Amino acid sequence: MIDKILFKETQKFTQWWLWLIVVGVFLISIFQFNWTENIADQFTTDKIIPTVISLGLLVLFLALKMTTTITDTEIIVEYVPFITKKWNWSELKTAKVIDYGFVGGWGIRLWTDYGTIYNVKGSKGLHIKTTDKQYVIGTQNEEELRSKIAHLLK
After folding, report:
1. Within 10 Å of residue 97's Cβ, how many Cβ atoms?
2. Which of 135, 46, 141 is nearest to 93 (CA)?
3. Is 150 helix (H, G, I), strand (E, B) or coil?
4. How far, in Å, CA of 56 to CA of 60, rounded?
5. CA–CA gap between residue 77 and residue 116 (Å, rounded)
6. pTM of the model
7. Strands of 5-11's sheet, edge to edge?
8. How far apart are CA 111 and CA 122, in angstroms?
9. Which helix (H) or strand (E) holds 51?
């Protein structure tokens, strides 16, 4: 049986300054080539490696997204292309929506005071504790999250 989805949120990195850095690094690596000369002659290690790395970084940021799906029975976080995590509500000791503040950046943050944090931006999220670990799943829709799962919060 498929559970009814109570809350679903997809987040992407939309910070303008972050995109300015990522695109800027890529453009700088492209502009190192002299486009009036034969490009094939310019494919040296010191030019091609930074270009490939910056292109990879650009593609990664285009692909990055975090989707949170919450049903009556489970919480699923998909942080494409890195992880998919699932927790059953029945296995959780506690769950509450919190403001966790700044934790040194965004993405997947390990070994924080709140355990592992999955976030894209902001400082609000669902803090869950299992018997041996804790996690925070970031959200941009704190009030909607709180109201849709209020009956499940412990």
Report:
1. 19
2. 135
3. coil
4. 6
5. 12
6. 0.86
7. 5-11, 65-71, 74-80, 83-88
8. 18
9. helix 45-63
Report the distance separating Cα 70 and Cα 65, nearest Å. 17
pLDDT digits over 14-59, tens only? 999 999 999 999 999 888 877 767 767 777 777 788 889 999 999 9
Instruction: Give me 133's structure tokens.
Output: 């670990």
User: Which CA distances in Å does 32 have to 18, 37, 41, 56?
Assistant: 22, 12, 13, 17
Nearest to 13 by CA among 100, 77, 107: 107
Say how far apart CA 4 and CA 123 lie, in whole Å.
27
pLDDT tens digits, one per residue of 124-134: 999 999 999 99
User: Running DSSP on this structure, what letter comes out for residue 29?
Assistant: H
- Report residue 115 as tokens: 């355990």
